[in-house]
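User: I'm putting together a small comparison set for a docking exercise, and I want a reference complex before I start. The sequence is below, and the ligand is zinc ion. Could you produce the 3D structure with the ligand included, as structure tokens?
Assistant: Of course. I'll restate your input first, then give the structure tokens for the complex.
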Amino acid sequence: MKQLLILAFCPLLMGLAQTGDDELVNIKELIPDIVLDIKYNTEDNFVTVFSGSGQKLYTTDECLVAMSTAKRLIIIQDSLREMGLGLKMFDGYRPRAVQYLMWETLPPEYQSFVANPATGSRHNRGAAVDVTLVDLATREELDMGTPFDFFGPEAHIDYTGFPQNILDNRSLLRSMMEQVGGLEIYVVEWWHYEYPPARTYPLLDFQLK
Ligand SMILES: [Zn+2]
């Protein structure tokens, strides 16, 4: 009974219980020690590279994800923390207008790396995340062999041409995301994981302020 009362008066848990699975939540509010590095809110991104001019696609460093996906990230971060590790997020919810811009900028030979905006990305539903692992104390990234948004065969999760420590880092991230969190990798991008049932979530198109 005492436990029930504590649960009932915990605002975070009350909020979690009341928020629908497809509603967007601010991940930093739910996981304060998650590291954010929102690349599309800088000019350091692939649209800048392919368009030849500095392109900042977002207007904020805040990161939203669907509640269903946030609940999984909470579990993953809890497990990682016990190892002195944590998640760093490069992207979560992405407005559909940005998806169109990416699609139009990307040369055709690279289009397996960006979802067609006509059908939409799981990012446009708040249910895909681009992540890596960091040492929680130093916030240093673990070596995954390529940077985020590296468009080449080395980004494929099955690429084996790296030293064992890099392959181990990729395996650790994958097992945490899939086996602990129940998310699913997009195999051509070691950093991209999504929540499969979210394919029915609405496509969203609002820019964060
Ligand atoms: Zn992604």
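The mean pLDDT is 90. Strands lie at 24-26, 35-36, 64-66, 85-91, 128-135, 184-186, 189-194.
User: Thanks, that's exactly what I needed.
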